[in-house]
Amino acid sequence: MATGGYIKNGTKFAYSASSPVSWLRIGQILEAPDLGIERDKVDATVHGSSIYKRSLPGMADVMALSMTLLSDANPSTSAAQDAMRTYVIAGTTIWFRAEIPVDRTQTQFRAVEFQGYVRTFAINGGAPGDRQETEVTIEFDGDSWTWYNAASSAIS
Questions:
Q1: Does residue 20 have a cis bond before it (omega within 30 degrees)?
Q2: Residue 102 falls inside a structural domain
Q3: CA atoms within 13 A on the CB side of 69
């Protein structure tokens, strides 16, 4: 039985278009994205006496962050969703931060920061009476993907 871990509760996302960064929380998240990096596999096999293939780590691909938000089209109550809509149209590269709780009390977080752009902003339709959702996809566009040690949250 697992004695640690958490159930996707307390993960936070934010963005900043300013320098120095000032994190603005992206709220009303219904489904959090996976966070990670995947390396290409480069075949380094040399034919000879060994029957085993070898490989080397290649270039790193940062996974796209696709999140589902509870829609709020009112810019006065959801400035972050309005900003994501503005950034997808402008194609602006900005800073993003994700914080994942390391304890159940959510007092310490492991954070990742990177530059990216909003690739998708889509308000989903659906049947009358269904909740309205917004899909936001963020693509990596920078030189670094920085993981930080556990610390207090920088996202309010």
A1: yes
A2: yes
A3: 25
What is the reported pTM?
0.85
Q: How many domains does the chain have?
A: 1
- Amino acid letter at 156? S
Which amino acid belongs to residue 151? A
- For residue 151, the 8-state DSSP code is B
Q: Are 27 and 15 in contact (CB under 8 A)?
A: no
Inform me whether the pLDDT recorded for 4 exceeds 70.
no
| Residue 129, domain extent | 12-147
The beta strands (E) that lie in 71-108 are given as 94-101
What pLDDT shows up at residue 76? 87
Domain contains 154: no
Could you tell me how many residues make up the chain? 156
Q: What is the pLDDT of residues 70-97, one digit of tens each?
A: 998 888 888 999 999 999 999 999 999 9
Whole-number Å distance between alpha carbons of 118 and 146:
19
If residue 136 lies in a helix (H) or strand (E), which one and from where to where?
Answer: strand 133-147
Residue 152 in any domain: the answer is no
